User: Fold these one by one.
Assistant:
Number 1:
Amino acid sequence: MVVEASGSRAGSDSLCLVAAAPSVTPWSLRSDHEELAAGGVDAVFATVASLEDTATAVTRVGQWLGVHDDPRHPARVVTSAAEIVAAKAAGQTAVVLHFQGTEPLGGDAGLVGVFARLGVQVMQLTYNYRAQAGDGCCEPGDAGLSRYGGMLVDRMNEHRVAVDVAHAGVRTALDAVDRSSRPVIASHANARAVCDSPRNLPDELITAIAATGGVVGLCAFQSFITAAGKPSLEQLVDHAVHIAELVGPEHVGLGLDFADESEEEYDFFGYDERYYPRPPWVWPDGLEWLHHARNIGPVLASRGFTPAEVNGVLGGNFLRALAAIWGN
């Protein structure tokens, strides 16, 4: 997606990547592809598993690989930056397999390499609470990265899997950044200085992620944008402006995190009602689902982002970081 100074869409040599799209599943892919195409979205991180066990995660990976192998599906599982670009050129949705938590590894750091070979190229260290790898963002103690969590970071670096600190506690995330020899990302999180939620990142952590060459993906979840009711797209862009002013626009991307969860799923994931309202969830005016993603570029441009900076936020920045992590 290329956005000129006027905010219009033009050209086909740039890319729109959404780094958290849990609503996109193997069984909904055909309709999802239409939504993504309508929004100008070329690539997504698809959540394979988060709190689920190893067997469930393997089954989900198998379902995605079945999609990849079926020429009737308009999507391909990708494991390199070049494959993302090639999928876009072919008119296909590029799917990056993503763990939102390391519980699917079952406490075995050796499975990082196994899942990497199966195509899981991004792993979030924790979900919201205490896990074997470290503390999540809603864990009061925030004890930091565990010894096992440090081993996971090492294995992720070894197998060129992106270390994702979304949902991690601040101390856990900072420990992971210090430990990692490759860029670290926060696939979907906003700036705590703009909206004071534990799911958002303090400036210290944003700065540390940027210093690795990493990227923070803007999250469209209502209570991570503002504490005051239904948010607007302008309010989401407030977070982009803050991060860009703090560390540079080259460290801002799109996370979005659109999800349509049921009451049962809400209870399964154990969300804290202080930070996550019970469903149905609402999304920003002007950005209410994936087909509205094309609305982001013009608002960024209106807030002073240059055309090149807009293209970076929409996908180029994550593509650069992933290329650095994944190599060739």
Number 2:
Amino acid sequence: MSAAATMAATAVTVVFAGLAAASPAAAANDTAQAIRIVVPVAAGGSADKLARTLAPRLSEKWGRPVVVDNVVGASGTLGAAQVAKARPDGSTLLLAGEGVTLNAVLFKSLPYDSGRAFRGVTKAVVNPQILVVRPDLGVKTFGEYAALVKKRPGEIALGLPGNGGIAHVAHEMLARQLGIRVNYIPYGGGAPATMDLLGGHIDATLITLAAVTDYVRSGRLTALAVTTPYRAKALPQVPTLAESGVPGFAVESWQGLIAPAATPTAVVEKLSRDVAAVLQAPAVRAQLEEAGYAVVGSTPQELDATLTRDLPRYASVIAAAGISLH
């Protein structure tokens, strides 16, 4: 066995030793051996819900605690920085999405090297962004929304789950294509944006579908359109933007797990297989699909390819719209 292979095998042994045999009670008392999933947005949003769906199942599979840690701030870069600097042994993971790619464009400097800090573990799910409004705004379709925004340029308050996030970029794509302008209100995640919309403090939000599925079903929010080229199984009555007068429009967001770049390949591949197995369990898959996710469970290589492919597309939109952070 080569030296590199020996090191990788040793790393797997260190991180996952005894998982099959370890009792849950013993693992629960060994907090130093916990696996930490850093969620870089506020609790209650779609990323947080996904992490908390996976955590107990992964804990059962690995025989040790899996802790969800919300580290909020700086458009997700605070949480990402903690993972980038963590020990690369598989014990600290980032619940990430396209924000990792967007931040590499939006920030002039980051507390980590965006091109070298991470490696993909798995793209867990994909999800449409969905445009929802408060019911008393008086619009029922995307066409009515666009007409209202044109009539009142800069007045409609649209909450963003994060400044410069995928919702911001997607709505800028819409705005430039249709010649409309809204008043963007940035939040620290999907949950606070949703709460303010439910409370009538803002008019609309473009947000990950899983964050608002229940509110749409209950009639507390009105859904106008999804950003993907296909309708969502969880809300099949909601049309796509392409069906609603914006031909060719397509933005699909994703959420998954990434690890520090120096994490050994053998560790990353085991993590990926185990997370994919949890995702494909019938009960978990049904729960996630009911919430609005489409389950993927990709290989590390497929997630790395997504990270590489998305960068030029989003960079061009950000540059054209003049979106900039620090």
Number 3:
Amino acid sequence: MAIVPLSLTFAILLSTAVAAFHSTAAIDYGESTISDIQSYFADGSLTSRQLVSFYLTRIQSLNPYLRAVIEVNPDALSDADIADRQRLSGSLLSRGILHGIPILLKDNIATRDRLNTTAGSFALLGSVVQRNAGVAGRLRSAGAIILGKASLSEWANFRTDHAPNGWCARSGQGKNPYVASADPCGSSSGSAISAAAGMAVAALGTETDGSIICPASANSVVGIKPTVGLTSRAGVIPVSPRQDTVGPMARTVADAVAVLEAIVGYDERDAEATAAAAWFVPEGGYRQFLKVEGLKGKREKGAILLDNLEIANASLILDWDNSGEKVALLAEFKLAVNAYLSELVTSPVRSLSDLIAFNNEHKIQEQIQEYGQTSFLEAEKTNGLEAKVRAAIKRMAELSANGIERLMKENKLDAVVTPDYSFTPVLAINGYPGISVPAGYGEFGVPFGICFGGLKGSEPTLIEIAYAFEQATKARKPPLLISAGDLGCMHCGD
């Protein structure tokens, strides 16, 4: 399938970016941290326009191979110019850590601008949202620049259970920047690939079950899955309001935490969840927990390790079909996506049944015909939060109370540590947080991460542990991208 152009305006953007890019190309901003970039802004060696130009050029070079970005923001350079003027004027806004920083958003996070919000599907191409998603609005209020929309497993991996991770109709198959044949995981694959390959400073992803933790692990970046409700889901194309959460993906813990700090908080458009979680937000924010000694008292580098603890009923929790998770998500998806679609200003589709009909009518896209829409069809058959759905939700709450909650309280644990992403259903079914940090590279150089999980509101402790682990191991390595002259992917032909 042919790649859809990033934007009709991309060629114009790129032509205006080239001169600025060449003046700053000596520094690889693809690996620069937010702190680095702010120091360059402060000493006048870099402008936001130059930084945005760098990333636009890098996306243009790498995206035909990696397929990690669906669209770039046609207003990104003009937004960068505004940021530069604010900095020169001494605006209070320009003192924020995210001011002038380009960030990609997963393509299920709405923006009220010239970008589309489509969940990777042609069915929503041309739809218009009423306003920015809550998290997008917070980023813009912090002075960040929305660089574009990252690809994803279409409909956040909820259209079908047959499509490969990282595939969506609009951008094709996303590729792991370390080993092209390796699974990029999903559904926030484009956000993870983009952060790993230096196509933005950071990105936002979303998770219902594993969709931040898994791609972060697979693409060797940091991914933070916040407590459900800590970040607003208003304006985010939903799967389950009970499990959905929005979180940052970046190359370092510090950068991910800086973005997290900007997007947490109460939102009246997601009032029930964000009000319940608001008291978890620490006074003074989350960056205060970036402590090198964060493992002390929690034995490697000072941590007390309790090995081989078992979560009661773990095998049942991990069983999608029998834990109750599948039953609940199918019903919740139909209700939530119908509500989202009904509120759009304009849209080619207004309900899940419309989506199913659209896909049936557009079988010219052979991948849609091949992969099908099994989850859509199963969800459409549901009848709201009927008795069996309520029983499934109650069952998951009991599994959590008798599982991870009892384990952590009885053993006085600060966190549960697991390899890769095998733990995500345990965190997902009751809205618990987790952080994935790069931990190494296995056979053929395929990345793997380590996941630190905890109970609701435990982000400060998880950040301390994740940051201390990162600083002690320094495990992450950049992917083998050719950055001199023309950018390319050394493994993309594999």
